[in-house]
């Protein structure tokens, strides 16, 4: 199948009612599997999670890619960022965008959008440390039957939330923040159980 646009092309949205209208994006994937005939995955702005799928009719070409890019390369850069890239021979050449081959590395930016929620979890941990003081906030690590007690606590908070009791009375934070805190205790316990550090 022949496509009108290629990976790396910069495009804008033709439909003025689209939420991304007026923005310049880069095509990061061309895939024919989509049943709705939306083969173009377009990445907008600096946030890697800010993308959508479009058809040829939805897009208008702004600038053709200077050279063909792999999807992983296109996803790792934003329009009009840097000016130089190193080719396969190690020589530097001029292009319109910078390229950084980090798509296979762990992408921590997935968590950025949840920072307000993690702030509540941090508050719950801090509250617990004030209520049960211990060196380095480690009182919970010293509990007997940590797995049973943390899982029970997580279920209590989840149950309260599902019964429309959204906030914990003591902390005034979401019951889900308490639930997540106890799930983190369980994950820590699993990670360290073979080392004999927890029970």
3D structure, described in words:
This protein folds into 2 domains: 10-94; 109-195. The strands form 2 sheets. Strands 4-3-2-1-5 form a 5-stranded antiparallel beta sheet. Strands 6-7 form a two-stranded antiparallel ribbon. It has helices at residues 71-75, 115-131, 146-162, 175-192; strands at 10-13, 24-30, 40-44, 51-54, 59-63, 84-86, 92-94. The chain has 199 residues and is of the alpha+beta class. It contains 4 helices and 7 strands; from the N terminus they run βββββαββααα. The longest helix is centred in the C-terminal third of the chain and has 18 residues, at 175-192. Helices cover 29% and strands 16% of the residues. Strand 3 and strand 4 form a beta hairpin. Helix 3 (146-162) runs antiparallel to helix 4.
> Which runs of at least 5 residues are low in confidence (pLDDT < 50)?
71-96
The main sheet comes to: 5 strands, antiparallel
What is the number of E strands? 7
Average residue-wise pLDDT: 78
Strand content: 15-25%
Total domain units: 2
Structural class: alpha+beta
Cα-based radius of gyration, to the nearest Å:
24 Å
Number of DSSP helical runs:
4
Q: Name the strands of the widest sheet in spatial order.
A: 4-3-2-1-5
- Percent helix, as a range, is 25-40%
| Broad shape | elongated
Q: What is the string of helix and strand elements? A: EEEEEHEEHHH
Distance between the termini: 58 Å
Question: How is the secondary structure organized here?
Answer:
Layout: E1 10-13, E2 24-30, E3 40-44, E4 51-54, E5 59-63, H1 71-75, E6 84-86, E7 92-94, H2 115-131, H3 146-162, H4 175-192
Antiparallel strand pairs: 1-2, 1-5, 2-3, 3-4, 6-7
Helix pairs in contact: 2-4, 3-4
